Amino acid sequence: MSTCVPKGSRSAKGAAAAAEVEPRDVDLQPEVKWHDGAAGYVARLDLAGFRKEEFRVQVDGAGRVTVRGQRPAGHVRLHSEFQLPPAADVDRIAARFDGATLCLIVPKRPAGGAAEVVLETMEDARVAAALELETERERAAGWDRGSAIAAAVAAFALGVVVSHRIFSTRNG
């Protein structure tokens, strides 16, 4: 692999040696890896090389998480922003750093209090009952027409049978 060095510049070996000595600014944007569990979410960010004192995590009221930091050695800066899911309980977030990975444990908000659950269940039952009643009416409307025809045929047949018996016993 060749290194392109302009004329009048230092040699390729000299440039490589100077690059090792000169600090470079590096901006990191670590990928957020999500796990969605039944009780909450876990967000993991790889922060290998950072110490706990070198970065900061902030969460605003709208669920926006910002992780910023700077490592003096090598002039490495860290910046990551992401939005928490709507079901996240931003007031109960916990963080853990093991020296390489930052884990944010984000509980989900409860579906509602017991009274809200009961009201939702009652509303669901009311809607189901209304749908069942409507279905019964639709079936009854269709069944009544068929029933009316069947009843008319049965009445006619019964009338014929009864009439036949009455006339046959009188004449017989």
UniProtKB/TrEMBL annotation:
Superkingdom, taxonomy of origin: Eukaryota
Annotated keywords: Membrane, Transmembrane, Transmembrane helix
Keyword Transmembrane: yes
BP term (GO), one: response to heat
Domain SHSP: start-end pairs: 23-125
Residues covered by region (Disordered): 1-22
CDD domains: ACD_sHsps-like
Pfam family, one: HSP20
Transmembrane segments: 147-167
Biased composition (Low complexity): 1-20
Protein family membership: Belongs to the small heat shock protein (HSP20) family.
Protein name: SHSP domain-containing protein
Organism: Oryza glumipatula
